[in-house]
């Protein structure tokens, strides 16, 4: 594929990422404005880099003409939550949505990766309305806590620096850091009720101040 082919190929994925970001950000805003608890802290999204796609295709032996079905995370959305419990709540809401179809789920929370990575992945089929008609694409929604995201972001950048050849001491420290993040999530879950109540109170007060 030349540059123009790639551009055309990636267009529906770019559209899907933009739409999905808006949808989940809006969901957060809507719940907040109804003074309900929002299981979403913030949302990011990206279209996979061509180099990363080619690498993955090679590793999984996906032929170039089967990238659409063979690589499920060309469009990727990441949703960060405060608490582990929010991940289940949000996953349930995603399963019930009419605008996307859940194909399958990967639970890297109860089955963490050997690296220490924890996150909940949902592979969806998402219809994009293009100028040529409707196109169903695959997308990956990653749902994780703020602590899981902190760990994954650091680990990703270290892997980038060391080109996947992490020195043993760094690997060991990352493994301990993953354990610390896990404990942090557990501790936060234990005082979840307290935290949520105080946040709702804080929002009530700031709404009052904003209205004055
Ligand atoms: P990019 O383009 O840099 O965002 P695999 O075959 O292991 O690659 P798997 O196990 O099926 O893939 O996982 P999946 O659901 O395809 O997700 C891959 C993505 O999950 C990665 O994207 C990361 O965002 C995240 N991820 C998976 N494992 C790890 C890990 O050990 N550490 C970190 N930091 N992130 C991980 P890419 O490949 O980085 O793509």
TrEMBL record:
Class of enzymatic activity (EC top level): transferase
Pathway as given in its UniProt record: Purine metabolism; ppGpp biosynthesis; ppGpp from GTP: step 1/2
Family recorded in the similarity comment: Belongs to the RelA/SpoT family.
Part of the intact protein present: 1 to 212 of 265
Lineage of the species this protein comes from: Bacteria, Bacillati, Bacillota, Bacilli, Bacillales
Known partners and oligomeric status: Homotetramer.
ATP-binding listed as a keyword: yes
Sequence ranges assigned to domain RelA/SpoT in this UniProt record: 45-166
Ribonucleoprotein in keyword set: no
EC number, as in UniProt: 2.7.6.5
A molecular function (GO) term: ATP binding
Single GO biological process annotation from the record: guanosine tetraphosphate biosynthetic process
Keywords, sorted A to Z: ATP-binding, Kinase, Nucleotide-binding, Transferase
Name by which UniProt lists this protein: GTP diphosphokinase
């Amino acid at each position: 594929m030349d540059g123009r082919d790639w551009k055309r190929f990636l267009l529906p994925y770019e559209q899907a990422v933009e739409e999905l970001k808006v949808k989940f950000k809006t969901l957060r805003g809507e719940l907040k404005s109804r003074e309900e608890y929002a299981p979403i802290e913030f949302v990011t999204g990206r279209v996979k880099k061509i180099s990363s796609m080619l690498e993955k295709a090679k590793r999984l032996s996906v032929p170039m003409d089967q990238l659409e079905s063979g690589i499920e995370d060309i469009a990727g959305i990441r949703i960060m939550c405060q608490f582990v419990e929010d991940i289940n709540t949000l996953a349930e809401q995603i399963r019930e949505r009419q605008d996307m179809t859940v194909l399958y789920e990967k639970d890297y929370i109860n089955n963490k990766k050997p690296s220490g990575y924890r996150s909940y992945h949902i592979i969806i089929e998402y219809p994009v309305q293009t100028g040529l008609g409707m196109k169903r694409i695959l997308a990956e929604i990653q749902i994780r806590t703020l602590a899981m995201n902190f760990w994954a972001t650091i680990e990703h950048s270290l892997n980038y620096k060391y080109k996947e050849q992490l020195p043993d001491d760094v690997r060991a420290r990352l493994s301990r850091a993953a354990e610390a993040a896990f404990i942090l999530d557990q501790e936060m879950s234990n005082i979840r009720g307290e935290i949520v109540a105080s946040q709702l109170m804080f929002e009530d007060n700031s709404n009052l101040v904003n209205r004055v």
